[in-house]
TrEMBL record:
Its job: Peptidoglycan polymerase that is essential for cell division.
Organism: Vibrio rumoiensis 1S-45
Record keywords, A-Z: Cell cycle, Cell division, Cell inner membrane, Cell membrane, Cell shape, Cell wall biogenesis/degradation, Glycosyltransferase, Membrane, Peptidoglycan synthesis, Transferase, Transmembrane, Transmembrane helix
Gene: ftsW
Main location: membrane
Protein name: Probable peptidoglycan glycosyltransferase FtsW
């Protein structure tokens, strides 16, 4: 009897291994990629925050427990968002944009200031960063706008460029007042990509691109601390204990990492040599502890997620789900560019901008909003698969549907 039970269990397991997985209406690989990045972030934030957590709170797991709470909130928010139809997002896109404008005003009036920047609204459990909400709200609004005004985008200069830029300009002014140039640059690059995908004229696109680059250069030039970041970026070892301190410590972490790293938890730079080791520069700790191999694996996971988002956007556009297609493309550009800036800043390729590594860096607002973005990708993919299933398949023309003339010709033959 026991032998029969063991055989039945063995056959059941063999059948489970050999049988293909049932068809589902969402991208399972995207789900596992997101979960993998979230768990990687929890492990690396735990490792990178031991020293500063012990100094500030007397316990090594303070930031780990907070990040775990942020993960729980992010998953709850994603579970709610994935139930909301895309049409509702499109319908209330203007309301979401107005909410983000209101939050940006609130943070200027009563925000929490850290290191001279007023970017957070205290909410008890965590500090809300309205800049993260502004990113998502702008992309949702622009996706809706590109669907409603597609003819203007392709033909009219005012409708195609000036109107979206005016909306972006309102957000940019409030963000620069915090100040937060990094978020403005991410939003601008993503907006350019969305307009290009929507079919805006190339000459107008290139002209506006030059205007955007000139504006960013001017904003860097008028602020002394931004100029110091630029000059220290070119040669951080010229002032290793001043303006180039953060970058030199990050480069030391990369140098110590070698191929396979020093081992999880064995970073030296995180012992309060490297500032912001668990937030903006968590990738430097990854490089030191996991080495080149760990860096490559994490980057492949992020860009696999970006590729999935692009595929979902392309499928949505081809199936006529324009709002979902534009939104998925914007999320892919957002994740890819923010990853490039964060990793580039840690590796000394681009100036430091204070942007988080998607789904990995410590920060409640960033983690929750990016989890919502992944849930939106899953919803877009779900609705596209559902619509393709519900579309009637074309039936082959039967012989009984021939006209009398065709029947007469067939009989003659």
């Amino acid at each position: 009897m026991v032998k029969a039970k063991v055989q039945s269990i063995g056959k059941g397991f063999q059948g489970w291994v050999n049988s293909p997985a049932p068809e589902v209406l969402y991208d399972r690989q995207l789900v596992w990629l997101a979960f993998g990045l979230m768990l990687t972030g929890l492990v690396m934030v735990t490792s990178a925050s031991f020293p500063i957590s012990s100094r500030l709170t007397g316990g090594p797991f303070h930031f780990m427990s907070r990040h775990a709470a942020f993960l729980f909130l992010a998953l709850c928010a994603a579970a709610v968002v994935i139930q909301i139809p895309l049409q509702r997002w499109m319908k209330y896109s203007m309301h979401l944009l107005l909410l983000s404008l209101f939050l940006l005003l609130v943070v200027l009036l009563a925000g929490h200031s850290v290191n001279g920047a007023s970017r957070w609204i205290p909410l008890g459990l965590f500090n809300l960063q309205p800049a993260e909400v502004a990113k998502l709200s702008l992309f949702v609004f622009m996706s809706s706008y590109l669907v409603r005004k597609s003819d203007e985008v392709r033909g009219s200069f005012f409708g195609g460029f000036i109107k979206p830029i005016l909306v972006f300009g309102c957000l940019a002014v409030l963000l620069l007042a915090q100040p937060d140039l990094g978020t403005v640059v991410v939003m601008l690059v993503t907006l350019f990509g969305m307009l290009f995908i929507a079919g805006a004229k190339l000459t107008q696109f290139i002209s506006l691109l030059f205007v955007g680059l000139a504006a960013v250069s001017f904003l860097i030039w008028i602020e002394p601390y931004r100029m110091r970041r630029m000059t220290s970026f070119w040669n951080p070892f010229e002032d290793p204990f001043g303006s180039g301190y953060q970058l030199t410590q990050s480069l030391m972490a990369f140098g110590r990492g070698d191929w396979f790293g020093q081992g999880l938890g064995n970073s030296i730079q995180k012992l309060e040599y490297l500032p912001e080791a668990h937030t903006d520069f968590v990738f430097a700790v990854v490089a030191e502890e996991l080495g080149f191999t760990g860096v490559v694996i994490i980057l492949l996971m992020i860009f696999a997620l970006v590729y999935k988002a692009l595929r979902i956007g392309r499928n949505a556009l081809e199936s006529g789900e324009l709002f979902g297609g534009f939104l998925a493309v914007s999320i892919s550009i957002w994740f890819a560019f923010q990853t490039l800036v964060n990793v580039g800043a840690a590796a000394g390729i681009v100036p430091t901008k204070g942007l988080t590594l998607p789904l990995i860096s410590y920060g409640g607002s960033s983690l929750i909003i990016m989890s919502v973005a992944v849930a939106l990708l899953l919803r877009i993919d779900y609705e596209c698969r559902l619509s393709s299933m519900l579309k009637p398949t074309p039936q082959p023309k039967s012989r009984t549907s021939d006209t009398p003339k065709e029947l007469e010709n067939n009989e003659t033959e």
